[in-house]
Queue: 2 jobs
Job 1
Amino acid sequence: MLKAENLVKRFEEKTALDGLNTEIRRECIYGLVGPNGSGKSTLMRLMCGVYRPDGGRITLEGEDIFENIAAKDRILYLSDDLYFPPKSTVEDLANFYRGLYSSFSMETYRKLCGCFPLEVKKPLSTFSKGMRRQAALLAALCCHADYLLLDEAFDGLDPVIRLMVKKLIAEEIAERGTTVVISSHNLRELEDLCDQIGLLSAGRLLFEKDLDALKLGFCRVQAAYDHPVDWEATGLMILDKKERGKLVSLLVRGTAEATLAALEAQRPLFAEALPMTLEEVFIGEMEAVGYDYSNILS
């Protein structure tokens, strides 16, 4: 388990993380979301031991990570800002990681070379942005680290490669019990992938919940009325309301069953529950804490 306790990180006058607490359990996919500058990359660099905390602790199964060689051998961090040595190739990158991680597998490397459409002997400097990202992911997946930290993992990938990478990540978890942390500012990328979601803003974790539990607390409904409705009298906790003629669409904190019962009491022409997106759930959670959600959705 990765655990942060009252974690603080400062860069001169700026406080990047301010008393952050979180626990990331084994064998899950944890989605770390938040706007640019919220502290996502800083947290990941603390998790892998690149940065030393200025306050609090960040531990791997009870042991501090910074300057802990054994812990770092179990954690792989893939930055959103990729760097490759001049004239290096995919083969050179694989050999570099092979020297760093004791669990690196050449068998996996050969297998993944057949999955990613890359020329392994061609200089990475000639690759497109998406191809460089593929090369980095290929090398990272060969390391079979217990904890895989991916910063903007899907940035620059086309839909086919993105789907393949998600499948490979799922295989790592199923076969080796890998724990994956993925940061993104795009909720749509994480909706069908993560078990747990944490929302980071201004160096603080606004909330952290299992994805299934998160969706259970809200519902989206639509109804039509041929008469005015006193919405306050319904007793519903309405977070978002859109009206168009007789049709009204509501985002409500509560269960679909209770919400539909309240709507039926107002004699609608019809009323129904609609599937919810992760984006809509986040709107509800962020409004509940007084946060301007328009800064995070894209």
Job 2
Amino acid sequence: MEEPRQPYSPSNMPPAEPVSRVTMKTFLSVITIFVIAHLVGTVLYILHLHNKLDKMSNELTLHEDYVFLKRVQSCRKPQGEEISFLDCTKISDSFRELMDSFQKVPDQILPAMQTSKPKRGASIHLAGVSSRSKILHWKNTTYAPRDDAFSNRDGKITISKDGSYYIYAQVTFCSKSELRAPFNVLVYLNLPSETDQLLLKGVGTYGTSVDLCGLQSIQVSRVVELKSGHTVFVNVTDISRVDYTHGNTHFGLIQLS
């Protein structure tokens, strides 16, 4: 005889085996990697598609330009040489407007182009000339810059433009050993109602040359802010020892800003 069947009850189901943590972590890691790879692939595809569209747009633009130029060329052919159904009047007007747009510079661009050109600063280079004055005198030289921004009078150089200037001077002098008096080069700023301001100073040394006059040179230079009306000049302790041979003694200013 068959055994009687027991009625179905959920409590009679065998208990389910719990999912291990390792399996769950592996599953989540795979899902995460898949999602990240999908996002990266999507971004790369969008970038590729964007570059391809730009390239196609450029090619279409070039093609349109080529077609337009071919139409212009066809319209420039003599009448009767080739039958054309093009509206040459409209094409010629479009081409003329295009050329005019390239030739005309907008008003807002022209001032910017003019102001962007670098301005040449004023400069002057002078050579020493013998005089009986207590300060060195100067003269213009060939192939040397000269500018109306400076005036040379009685050895004093007057500036007419405010700005930063690079001042340089070289004085060549006789340095005989028996001349024990020191030889100094001094560059002064002469102010109308103030005491002269010392800008530069160079100190000479005694020479040991057996020549009648062993020549030595002193060079001084610096950058200084000058105002319109300021005057600079060069003085030495013994003007009789200065050598005025070409290129030996000179003085100059260069405007930097």
